[in-house]
């Protein structure tokens, strides 16, 4: 049963220049609803939630919400006052004893930052990295008392663990309504009960998360005899992927399970493994990379020690790990950018590697998109007799015929990243190393990239926080847990998260055991402080009683009454300070005694 209505859009329209983004859109959000928004970049998704938040006005129509409803927005730009500290942004004017004793606030700080210390809270917001700023503003929003939160790409800069924590936290708050824009399809599946697709000025509603959206859209397309063959083919590839776990992926939505399974049943696997492996073996030979007892450093920091690992032809490997564990450093070592301090890394003689890093390549801003791609090659071989022209590859990765004539200097960050990937692929590499390839890509571009990689017959190594993308394109997983080793993960990302939970629990147990002696001493000290504060409170209470009696006696002596009132105010302020110190000490003692 739906909760109370929180917010409605009634016939809302919005245009940018002469291009309509929203055309007479009517929709509503109820208490506890979880809604994911998908659509092409520039299609109006962010504009929609800005209008819902009231920070952008519609050209026509109206937004209605009750006065008591509190709406919070996490935008794509993270900002705060120039001199703000982290504690100012996250906690506002909350007193320390107020937030430190609040279990929900502690849970958010631990979940997003691994804990909370004065060192963290006293950092300047302006000095934080983009990922740290995103976590700070997300923490601020999650501890606020909102009825509805609007999230624009909340998983950007979050690792796999952070995304999993955020999904679980949102699911635990049953009355909170959430509307989220994200290209992270695993996150959409986890948290969404509805999906809104923003397309051609309309908002189309589907029940369930991303997987249910794909299934429902395929069924809707079948019923309406959709003529767009290219888009239908991509949807069919998604169906082939969903076939691998159809019961689990279709259990949550209200979509008809029978219809979904009928759609999925006749779809072939998304890629022919034996065909791809045959191509990779013929072209690559038997050796790709062999790591023999290698020790690798990132600057002065040791990343991996005594590692032995063979990477074979045609393997598709996803690499996950904690921040700072050395995922990018490992890629740089494989491509020869850095050398192993000990041991050796052998590269096969037939290997032609391409490395998509997180840093954008500088290109001549006057080049056209197609020109930038054709400067690498005019045609690319995908293997098995398949090839694409530069224009065809550009179109596959979201550059339409008109967009291919756009100057490079006019491209957005996401478009530049797509261009960088297109240029890499045009060089016909037989080994691809992709470091966070999904950053700034919309869902349709991600689907097109996955479709393209289905046909890629070489060896593929991927670092990504996008769990859906990793599970979609990779067959094997390797984990870097920050302990100088790498681990095979036959259980995939679920196994990685379980290992991380086990490691964190073990470290917590060690820390507890190590500090048990000091904890006993700290508890004794706190008890003494609490007893001292209680004695001081008794003394100040006696003083206040005496001053109040003197106040009554001095009612007609105004000069004396003024002095008494001043003394009484000072005594009351002193009592408040002692009470606050007592509360912090008792709260700390309770947490240490648990």
Describe the structure.
There is one protein chain. This protein has 4 domains: 205 residues, Rossmann fold; 61 residues, no CATH class; 237 residues, Rossmann fold, CATH 3.40.50.300; 78 residues, Helix Hairpins (Orthogonal Bundle), CATH 1.10.287. 36% of the residues are buried. The chain is globular and about 105 Å long. It is an alpha/beta fold and 594 residues long. The strands form 5 sheets. A 6-stranded mixed beta sheet has the order 5-6-7-3-8-9, with helices on both faces. A hairpin with a 2-residue loop joins strand 8 and strand 9.
The CATH topology of the largest domain corresponds to Rossmann fold
- What would the average pLDDT be, to the nearest integer? 81
The biggest sheet, with number of strands, parallel, antiparallel or mixed sense and barrel status, is:
6 strands, mixed
Structural class: alpha/beta
The number of helices is 22
Q: Which percent bin holds the helix content? A: 40-55%
Strand order across the biggest sheet?
Answer: 5-6-7-3-8-9
What distance separates the N and C termini? 39 Å
Kindly provide the radius of gyration, computed on alpha-carbon positions and rounded to a whole number of angstroms.
29 Å
The CATH architecture of the largest domain can be named as 3-Layer(aba) Sandwich
CATH class of the largest domain: Alpha Beta
The tally of beta strands, per DSSP, is 20
Number of domains: 4
- The fourth-level CATH homologous superfamily of the largest domain is P-loop containing nucleotide triphosphate hydrolases
Strand content: 15-25%
Provide the low-confidence segments as ranges.
Answer: 252-256
Instruction: Label the overall shape.
Output: globular
């Amino acid at each position: 049963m739906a909760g109370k209505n929180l917010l409605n859009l009634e016939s809302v329209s919005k245009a940018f220049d002469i291009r309509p983004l929203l055309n007479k859109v009517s929709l509503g959000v109820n208490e506890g609803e979880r809604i994911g928004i998908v659509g092409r970049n520039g299609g109006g998704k962010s504009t929609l939630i800005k209008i819902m938040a009231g920070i952008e006005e519609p050209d026509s129509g109206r937004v209605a919400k009750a006065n008591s409803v509190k709406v919070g927005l996490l935008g794509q730009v993270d900002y705060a006052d120039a001199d703000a500290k982290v504690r100012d942004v996250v906690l506002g004017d909350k007193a320390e004893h107020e937030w430190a004793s609040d279990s929900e606030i502690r849970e958010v700080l631990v979940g997003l930052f691994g804990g909370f210390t004065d060192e963290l809270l006293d950092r300047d917001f302006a000095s934080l990295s983009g990922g740290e700023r995103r976590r700070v503003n997300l923490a601020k929003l999650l501890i606020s008392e909102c009825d509805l939160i609007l999230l624009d790409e909340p998983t950007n800069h979050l690792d796999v663990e952070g995304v999993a924590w955020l999904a679980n936290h949102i699911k635990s708050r049953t009355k909170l309504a959430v509307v989220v824009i994200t290209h992270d399809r695993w996150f959409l599946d986890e948290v969404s009960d509805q999906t809104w697709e923003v397309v051609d000025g309309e908002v189309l509603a589907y029940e369930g998360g991303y997987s249910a959206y794909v299934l429902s859209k395929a069924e809707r397309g079948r019923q309406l005899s959709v003529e767009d063959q290219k888009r239908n083919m991509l949807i069919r590839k998604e169906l082939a992927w969903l076939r691998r776990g159809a019961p689990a992926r279709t259990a949550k939505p209200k979509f008809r399970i029978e219809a979904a399974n009928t759609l999925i049943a006749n779809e072939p696997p998304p890629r022919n493994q034996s065909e791809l492996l045959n191509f990779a073996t013929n072209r690559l030979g038997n050796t790709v990379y062999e790591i023999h007892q290698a020790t690798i450093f990132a600057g002065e920091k040791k990343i991996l020690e005594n590692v032995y690992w063979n990477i074979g032809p045609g393997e598709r490997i996803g690499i996950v790990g904690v921040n700072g564990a050395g995922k990018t450093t490992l890629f740089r070592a494989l491509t020869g950018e850095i050398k192993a301090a000990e041991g050796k890394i052998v590269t096969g003689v037939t290997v032609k590697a391409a490395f998509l890093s997180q840093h954008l390549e500088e290109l001549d801003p006057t080049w056209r998109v197609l020109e930038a791609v054709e400067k690498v090659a005019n045609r690319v071989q995908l293997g098995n007799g398949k090839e694409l022209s530069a224009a065809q590859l550009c179109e596959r990765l979201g550059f339409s015929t008109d967009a291919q004539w756009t100057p490079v200097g006019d491209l957005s960050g996401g478009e530049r990243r797509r261009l960088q990937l297109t240029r890499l692929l045009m060089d016909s590499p037989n080994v691809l190393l992709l470091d966070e390839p999904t950053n700034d890509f919309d869902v349709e571009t991600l689907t097109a990239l996955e479709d393209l990689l289905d046909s890629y017959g070489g060896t593929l190594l991927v670092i990504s926080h996008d769990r859906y993308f990793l599970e979609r394109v990779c067959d094997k997983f390797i984990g870097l847990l920050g302990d100088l080793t790498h681990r095979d993960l036959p259980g995939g990302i679920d196994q990685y998260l379980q290992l991380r939970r086990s490691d964190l629990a073990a470290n917590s147990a060690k820390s507890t055991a190590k500090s048990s002696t000091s904890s006993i001493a700290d508890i004794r000290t706190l008890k003494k402080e609490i007893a001292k504060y209680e004695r001081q409170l008794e003394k100040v209470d006696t003083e206040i009683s005496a001053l109040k009696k003197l106040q009554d006696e001095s009612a007609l002596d105004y000069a004396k009454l003024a002095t008494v009132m001043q003394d009484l105010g000072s005594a009351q302020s002193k009592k408040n300070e002692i009470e606050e110190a007592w509360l912090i000490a008792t709260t700390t003692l309770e947490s240490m005694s648990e």
